[in-house]
Amino acid sequence: MSFRNRSDAGRRLAARLATYKDQQPVILALPRGGAPVAAEVAAALEAPLDLVLVRKIGVPLQPELAMGAVVDGASPIIVRNEDVIRLAGVDESEFQAVCDDELAEIERRRQRYIGDRARLDVKGRVAIVIDDGVATGATTRAALQAIRSRQPRKLVLAVPVAPTDALASMREEADEVICLEDHEIFGAIGYFYDDFRQTTDQEVIDILARFPAGSGEAERAGPDSPDK
Q1: What single-letter DSSP state applies at residue 22?
Q2: Where do the domains of the chain lie, and which CATH numbers do they carry?
Q3: Cα distance between residue 158 and residue 43, in whole Å
Q4: What is the dihedral of CA 49, 45, 218, 10, to 10 degrees?
Q5: pLDDT tens for residues 47-97?
Q6: What range(s) does the Phosphoribosyltransferase domain occupy (predicted)?
Q7: How far apart are alpha carbons 138 and 79 in whole angstroms?
Q8: pLDDT at 226 over 80
Q9: How confident is the model at residue 135 (pLDDT cuts 50, 70, 90)?
Q10: How far apart are CA 157 and CA 199, in angstroms?
Q11: Please, which residues have CB within 8 angstroms of residue 22's CB and are 6 or more apart in sequence?
């Protein structure tokens, strides 16, 4: 199976998540790529949408290789991949420097995407965390730990695709993991999409505008909406 684009993946995920519609869930997207996937789910479930601002902490000379991840919050949650840190020979000062850079990027995104928009309260509710896929799992684990600390009644991770070996650690963090397909030989998330172009800041902003804070029902995407 491959996905035409992120919206196609979101519609397929929405079908799997349909049983949650009557439970009034909240949908939480990992931007940027998770936003168009989550938008389809939120529209189908008539659920509110918010973001989880999380950034990968990449190895200095190999930024695509995650040595950890950091999630925004009053006390930022940092997840470390000690095996990668050790193998890459990264010392603590180097790790902290990259972490600080990613926290600065999180702040930029918070101002650009969210501004003074009210944030969703997930306490006591079903929280469904969505991304366009899982790679190493570092950013996903960090996001799940951050949402868990906000005391949802149930924490669900829903992704279109993931490496088989990453799902075990995801199940340690979430109450339920829904993954449409997993592969032992993985490579990269983009291999499983026909169109995996980068989601832009403006697309994330436009998606959030379709889901006003406090609204449980989104406007349906029109034919000219992003990533269709």
Answers
A1: G
A2: 6-53+118-209 (3.40.50.2020), 55-113 (3.30.1310)
A3: 15
A4: 70
A5: 999 999 999 999 999 998 889 999 987 778 898 989 999 999 999 999 999
A6: 8-186
A7: 7
A8: no
A9: confident
A10: 21
A11: none
